[in-house]
FecR family protein
Amino acid sequence: MNDTDFKILFQKYLDDAITPEEMQQLQRRLESHYPAAVIDELWESILQAPYTGPRSSPDQLAALYRNLKPAGKVVTINWKKAIQYAAAMLLLVSAGTYLYYQTTQRPLHTPPTTAKQQPILPATGMVTLTLADGSRVAVDSLGNQTIRQQGALISKTGNELVYAGGNSSTNSMNTLSTPRGRQFQVKLPDGTRVWLNAASSLSYPTTFTGPQRKVTVAGEAYFEVAANPQQPFVVATAGSVVEVLGTSFNINAYEPESQISTTLLDGAVRVSGIRTGIRPVVLRPGQESRLTNTHSVVEHADLEKTLAWKKGYFNFEGATLHQVLNELQRWYDIEVVYEGNVKDIRFGGELSRSKRLDQIITALKDNEVHFRLEGNKLTVLP
């Protein structure tokens, strides 16, 4: 087998078009003819070249790619190329070899357990509804059933819980909770719709009474609030209060994150901190409130990044390593452990939430940080 044959087989491997016999040929060639540095050069040349064959998926085939590590400490990742990199890593590990990052020429060894590691897919826990009496309902198992609670009718339509009716003389509280790896929607009794991200919860009454419509959020949620100027809508988190009339906005209030972010798409909201001495702000569409020990406003928020979770993908543009891994923890139900001091690195790019964890981890690998995955425990190495 010459280099041209190798490249053809390797491209077929990347396109999931390789036969078992061709796979054996490719692995034998890797084991017996190529040192790691030469393999690295060959597959890099393949990935850089324009590809004119059949395209099985956008994630596997890309005509061009950017470097994994541009100048400075910002790592801008081309995820399409990175998934190909993951495929190459898996192939080379199975052949008993290892790769060099060309930026440093330092070896990155893959732990022996990697080849045996079971793929980790997004978590699939149960969405639960906690009723006023403390009983819990598995929302996924509701089917066509309807729950009647003090006059309110609760039903499930697809991935949305719908409230209708309700007795205005009662004020029973319900809590909808999503586990890691799941998202869900709810239509509240006033017509307001809420999308919950993974590992989040929303507490609300079965009917809105009094001068306000007040709900409480932990984690992240997107709201489309039904207009009612006579009864303002109020969202409380552990560290903030958001007052609205009728609008669309996103709140990110995960703990133990130090920042609560409120991003406004349309309408108007007033964001206040619960701590004394923090001034409230009124947001205009496109602005974002960032509440920590102080309160600041981003004039032109990155709406694509903010709503990426609702559209089914990760957006890591400008995210720190800790922020990236916190989001992966919530989606894949893994435990992240840090060994030693981890360098300050920021990432860029976006990736589908349907990907396996090993694909994303390989895409995140940079010459400054290494990972070790053992079961559901991800260890970050300096």
